[in-house]
Design brief:
mainly alpha
């Protein structure tokens, strides 16, 4: 697969989602730290703003870290792809449409040979149909023990084939 990274949907999806995750994590952290700082300095901080704010900062830090890991993976893919050599392009010769192709045609069969081939097929089919085996020469096995027949059921029920 000689597909460049700029044409890979997975690469761009990783990059966009990583950037979005980093931005959301940074927004969560900065918003909560800003709220906690202003309320603590004013002396109007409540327990919800302080304790829930700390938890949201931790969640924001986790989201920010996931986004940073995604961006580092994207950079790693770019570095790995730059180390893989690209194959040399195949040289294709231009087609010269001015040269006519030398076509050799097979001679048409003569009517006598075509008729002979048709009659030989008909006679071979007639010979195969005309071969009749007398009923006395046919070997029958009417015994209830059919263990010698391949695929026979022991209860003499008809076998099911697919």
């Amino acid at each position: 697969m000689n597909k460049s990274l700029t044409r890979s949907i997975g690469f761009w999806l990783l990059l966009v989602v990583s950037l979005a995750t980093t931005a959301v994590g940074a927004w969560l952290i900065s918003g909560q730290i800003g709220t906690m700082t202003t309320t603590l300095l004013d002396g109007t901080a409540t327990g919800i703003e302080v304790y829930v704010g700390q938890s949201l900062v931790v969640v924001g830090a986790g989201v920010l870290a996931a986004g940073i890991v995604g961006i580092l993976l994207t950079l790693g893919l770019v570095a790995a792809r730059s180390l893989v050599p690209t194959p040399a392009p195949a040289v294709v010769e231009a087609i010269d449409w001015t040269v006519e192709a030398d076509e050799t045609q097979l001679p048409a069969p003569t009517t006598a040979s075509a008729e002979a081939a048709a009659t030989s097929d008909v006679t071979a089919a007639d010979d195969a149909a005309a071969t009749v085996v007398p009923e006395a020469d046919v070997e029958r096995n009417d015994s209830p023990d059919r263990s010698d027949v391949d695929g026979a059921n022991p209860d003499d029920s008809p076998s099911i084939t697919r």
